[in-house]
Fold:
Amino acid sequence: MTTKLNVLAAGMLALASATCAQAAEPKSGGIMRFYHRETPPSLSIHEEATFSVNAPAMALFNNLVVYDQHKPQNSMDTIVPDLAESWAWSKDNLTLTFKLHQGVKWHDGQPFTSKDVKCTFDLIQGKGQDKFRKNPRKDLFKNITDVTTNGDYEVTLHLSRPQPSILAMLATGYTPMYSCHVPAAQMRTHPIGTGPFMFGEFKQNESIKLVKNPNYFKKGLPYLDGIEYTIIPNRATAVLAFVAGKVDATFPTEMTSALIKDIKSQDPTAICEIAPINVSSNLIVNRENPPFNNPDLRKAMALSLDRKAFIDIIFQGQGDAGGTMLPPPEGVWGLPPDILKTIPGYGDVAKSREEARAIMTKLGYSADKPLKIKVSTRNLATYRDPAVVLIDQLKTIYIDAELEPVESSAWFAKVARNDYSVGLNLTGNGIDDPDQAFYENYACGSERNYTHYCNKDIEALFDKQSVETDVEKRKKMVWDIDKKLQEDVARPILMHGRSGMCWKPYVKNLTVMNNSVYNGYRYEDLWLDK
Amino acid sequence: MGTYLIRRFFLMLLTLFGISVLVFVMLRLVPGNIADILFDAAGMINTAEKHDLEKQLGIDQPIIVQYGQWIGGLARGDLGYSYVSEKPAIQEIAPRIPITAKLAGLALMFSIVFGVPLGVLSAVKQNSGLDYVLRVISLSGLSMPSFWLGLLILMAFVHFFGTIPIYTNPPVGFWNTLALYSVPAAAVGFRSSALVMRLTRSSMLEVLRQDYIRTARAKGASDQNVNYHHALRNALLPVVTVIGIEAAFLMGGLIVTETVFNIPGIARFLVEAIRWRDYPIVQNLVMFIAVVAVSVNFLIDLLYAALDPRIRYAS
Structure:
């Protein structure tokens, strides 16, 4: 009897699997329609630092290696071949050699070879004749001393020191391969890549259209005939357009939990997902000018923060407290909760504020004699709203702050010339990797080290974790560094936000990345079940 | 009349020159330039790269040199290049003009077709129930913010019809174009028609009280003859002025409607270009709108002479 039941169960399981497999068979054809929140500054991924560019442009290109587009958490374990079919480190970890796919063509029919890889890095490192207008990630690859080719299908990166994270930097959507024969200027307006989709048209303020690459080197892909991004800057109109079926999906990260609730009430079939976006809101303090050159004052400010209040007010509870690195479980390198709570300011809020008030009293401030400051921030809602919450919290420790909104285009210039005392900033991370986060934001002299924090001892620890090839050992080193940075009040992290995206149920194979918003837009196997 | 036309032409040129200087200087007074905006998007400032970019675009030149280059180019028909798209400015601006022109034209037609007859009706039926209803409608047209009204219309379409009348692709064919533009035109025209209606009503009421109207009635002229042949023509003078102002406003002032209905017209493009500090686009678009406004005002002045034979422009 038991045997008969087992056979019956197995048969039913097989039938169910077959049915599911049949139902999941991708269909070719159709145009995927997204809305886009704004006109991107250009379509040249290497020259920009906003995912307003990555979202439409990543489908035009391939990388040497890429994060698996269907694993939400990007990590070293999810890096898969792309233009490179295999790679190998040398024994001393100073060279990384890639064997490239053969028969790959650029969209204009020219063959892709190892020379194109060299040209890409020459552009990034500013070594070639052709130059980018802006080069925001030049420093990510400063450890690469040379790129050599061995025939048309083998290329080697030579490093000055071991750096396992180089693979992560190559896998991000930020590092596509460019060609030798297409000028950098053209890549901004009419990019040529090797990707599953080709450039169709880019009309400012109107739309971006991509068309299927019929000669894509991954046979059978892409399934779609094209992808269209209609630029709809007004979010209310965009949400209504999605509900009415004018677009098949919203723009990544644009949907708050309130908007998702609204969408679901009007279209219960819509699939919506909220995920961390690896963008932190943080406090920047001018440590060079009084009174904030006093470390006790900076410490008091850090102790005043109620991170749960930030998350509840700004993100309706959809956010996380953490250090520099995105907190787990989505973040690979984030401080675990048991370490986080040992950092001053991350425990009991009332107790921390009491400690902060004691520091302020010692410094001569009180409820009757508060410290009057200005909190500067970019004049955008995503910056202003947390700044208002911050001002309210600083009141609890005798700091009377006034909001100073700064015109968006003037913000980074103002911060770069140290023309602020306290600021609220947002920091986006292109990759969930400590090398990118630490060097960009905390290394002495880095262009994005807005507070000019400079601690040679900690920087030595950056270098130590950067060469570590054992992931678990490296994690512990990263946690130690992150803890030190928070204790040193280098740039207090207020919260890591979460935001969402919605799509129609007939859109298949769309995966939302949960530790970077810059990486999940290749769409080579996206299909429409209609 | 010939002398008048020549004098007006030169006055128009002077006005346009003044506007060109004003827009040029104001753009440079606003903090930040395209290089600042582009680096701002990258979250960093690289001074050397920024300086190179400014040099490449010519915005490091003295302001008078930049102005001279722009005006010289304009005289040759060269509008320069968009800093953002790197395409000729004319290629960016020209396709958008018919889009806004269609929207503005339909909205103006809506305002005239509804505003004038309803204004006459309201005046002729003064203090009747119909008059009160029309006055409430006109007040609501003037009170409702167009942004709110536009969104309300979109929500109603989605809720009741499951569709949304916004621009996603260029419409093909006359009826599709009319269908796409008529809803936003109605949203804009509602406000304009309310204004025209109220002005027509008050102007008609004033004219209907004149002696010659009473004389015409005493001589046995029908109500229709009195209202439309004798009164309306004289009542139209101030209405024509307002319609002229509205027409000029509509060409450059439809930013809210174009944003809500996602129409890629010149108003929305102008605001976007200002945000980017895309000087060639902003300067040339503002001049285009100024030319339209100045020309419309000139045409309105000529129309006065046609409407009122007592008006003759001095030689």
User: Anything to note?
Assistant: Residues 165 and 180 of chain B are 6 Å apart (CA to CA). The first helix of chain B runs from residue 2 to 29.
